[in-house]
From TrEMBL:
Keyword set, alphabetical order: ATP-binding, Cell membrane, Membrane, Nucleotide-binding, Translocase, Transport
Location (main, coarse): membrane
Localization per record: Cell membrane
Family: Belongs to the ABC transporter superfamily.
All copies of domain ABC transporter, residue ranges: 5-238
Keyword Cytoplasm (UniProt): no
GO molecular function, one term: ATP hydrolysis activity
UniProt-listed InterPro entries: AAA+_ATPase, ABC_transporter-like_ATP-bd, ABC_transpr_CbiO/EcfA_su, ECF_ABC_transporter_ATP-bd, P-loop_NTPase
GO cellular component, one term: ATP-binding cassette (ABC) transporter complex
Membrane topology of this protein: Peripheral membrane protein
Gene3D superfamilies to which the protein is assigned, alphabetical: P-loop containing nucleotide triphosphate hydrolases (3.40.50.300)
Species of origin: Brevibacillus reuszeri
The name this protein goes by in its record: Cobalt ABC transporter ATPase
């Protein structure tokens, strides 16, 4: 897979004396599903906001499709990398769902017929085609989150960054949101998710990046990352219950978080 986003020795600080990112280097490959995890203040959100130019490095370099983000505006970068905030109310400001979703395509200068098409496609993708004329503010948190996702989908980005997409949702809402994210990934989008929910990371992510004190301390697939309890403890991350159960049961080989995996573990235990 080719590289879509690259960090090269990136440092960043809100104040020069207190860097938040400390020499971060990594590559995000096209088509990956990446979860960024870590304790509060570890730098994961700051890292993610460099992906679409919301933040620019104090030192080092971030490139998107080989172009330096220092040379591109957020508006230009958002056509490739879209950022969905943790609180959808920080994005939504129009009086109807359709008006909200059409805002980005209008700013991109698309013709009216194409705007209509991309808005309809985006609403269909998130399952909200039936509420185009509704007022977003009277919708549930889960629906507002989907409206926010639709508004970035309408700009047809290659990469979608989601900051805590399931915060404040009930179990059903969480499942619906993550299944939507999974469908977007399968349709060809590169997905980057920031989350504290390790169960979702184990179930959906293909790659996990662990942040601690502004540095990447581990990078690999969920079984690789979640079977390193000492590293996770130092990074203030608790692995999902299935991995803790496997460790307690004495299994050396990691088993994915699936019903089949749980049955396999129980069978081997017997």
């Amino acid at each position: 897979m080719s590289t879509v986003i690259a960090f090269e020795d990136v440092w960043y600080g809100y104040e020069k004396e207190t860097p938040v990112l400390k020499g971060v280097s990594l590559e995000i490959k096209r088509g990956e599903f990446v979860a960024i995890i870590g304790g509060n203040g570890s730098g994961k959100t700051t890292l993610a906001k460099h992906c679409n130019g919301l933040y620019k490095p104090t030192k080092g370099r971030v490139t998107v499709n080989d172009s330096d983000t220092q040379d591109m505006s957020v508006a230009r970068l958002s056509k490739t990398v879209a950022y969905c905030y943790q609180n959808p109310d920080h994005q939504i400001f129009h009086q109807t769902v359709k008006a909200e979703v059409s805002f980005g395509p209008k700013n991109m200068g698309l013709p009216a017929a194409e705007i209509e098409q991309v808005v309809n496609e985006a609403l269909e993708a998130v399952g909200l085609a039936h509420i185009g004329d509704a007022e977003p503010y009277f919708s549930s948190k889960g629906t507002r989150q989907k409206i926010a996702v639709a508004s970035i989908l309408a700009m047809r980005p290659e990469v979608i960054v989601l900051d805590e997409p399931t915060t404040g949702l009930d179990y059903r809402g969480m499942q619906e949101m993550m299944e939507l994210v999974r469908r977007l990934h399968k349709s060809g989008h590169t997905i980057i998710v920031i989350t504290h929910d390790m169960r979702l990371v184990a179930e959906y992510a293909e790659r996990v990046i662990v942040m601690h004190r502004g540095k990447i301390v581990c990078d690999g697939d969920p079984p690789h990352v979640f079977t390193k309890p000492e590293m996770l403890a130092s990074a203030q991350v608790e692995p999902p219950a299935i991995y803790r159960f496997g460790e307690a049961a004495g299994f050396l080989a990691p088993i994915p978080l699936t019903l089949a995996g749980m049955q396999s573990m129980l069978t081997r235990r017997d």
